[in-house]
Specification:
Number of helices: 8
Shape: globular
CATH topology: Rossmann fold
Structural class: alpha/beta
Number of strands: 7
Oligomer: single chain
CATH superfamily: NAD(P)-binding Rossmann-like Domain
Number of domains: 1
CATH class: Alpha Beta
């Protein structure tokens, strides 16, 4: 049985969707979770939900696409806990545009939110974890990192592929400090955004392409929990597929 009791875990972009599912799973397994989301976002009250159900959670709004904002968040974490055991780089966005439509600002927004945020957060997390001689860092990538996006979304695909390069490099850097760095790579996961983007009929059609059907955020959360557990101490630089068999490699 996985046990994360006593662990302090930061999950970026965790007020909804996949990040929310990850936070709930980690909290259920005993971790004290830090819920992060952009200050401009109207977040769901996940902190209250976790605390009411017997878990432990706090929230720290921060725009993780900005280094200054990330540094303030980590200053608060270090001041409150003095350490960080788990970082899940989950924050991510996309927009339905191809290379002929994407403007510079749109490119920069996706790259900064999806890729630079992971660098900013990992840089601060690894400084803390190096002192502890222990830590777990997980990037939430995407199946498009392997196969590319099917229709447009070149900025999103580039950011997700870039995450995997960062994972492998940081895994080598962190190994001598007891820090593992891995990626969990989801396929189609049932979230509010999925239905908003594709509609109910579209989601039903997508499900036909997946041998095990569309996944739940908690499916991603369980993979993250394993990677962050003591049982996974010898796994680093890996990409764990959670896609229901939609993409096999």
């Amino acid at each position: 049985m996985l046990n994360l009791s006593g662990k302090i875990a930061l999950i970026t972009g965790s007020s909804k969707g996949v990040g929310r599912g990850i936070a709930i799973v980690l909290a259920n397994l005993g971790a004290e979770v830090i819920i992060n989301y952009p200050p401009s976002e109207n977040s769901e009250n996940i902190v209250e939900e976790i605390n009411t159900s017997g878990g432990k959670a706090i929230k720290i709004p921060a725009d993780v696409s900005l280094a200054e904002s990330v540094n303030k968040m980590f200053d608060e974490i270090e001041g409150r806990y003095g350490r960080l055991d788990i970082l899940v780089n989950n924050a991510g966005i996309s927009e339905s545009k191809d290379i002929f439509e994407i403007e510079d600002a749109g490119w920069n927004n996706i790259i900064n939110t999806n890729l630079s945020s992971g660098f900013f957060c990992s840089r601060r997390a690894m400084l803390l974890m190096r002192k502890q001689n222990h830590g777990r860092i997980v990037f939430i990538s995407s199946m498009v990192a392997y196969q590319g996006a099917l229709f447009g979304h070149v900025h999103y695909a580039a950011s997700k592929s870039g995450q995997l390069g960062m994972v492998r490099t940081l895994a080598r850097t962190g190994a001598k400090f007891g820090i593992t760095v891995n990626a969990v790579v989801p396929g189609i996961i049932e979230t509010e955004l999925l239905y908003k983007t594709h509609g109910s009929e579209g989601v039903q059609e997508m499900a036909k392409m997946v041998p095990l059907g569309i996944g739940k955020p908690e499916d991603v959360g369980m993979a993250v929990a394993f990677i962050c557990s003591d049982e996974a101490h010898y796994i680093t630089g890996a990409s764990i597929d959670v896609n229901g068999g939609m993409y096999m490699r």
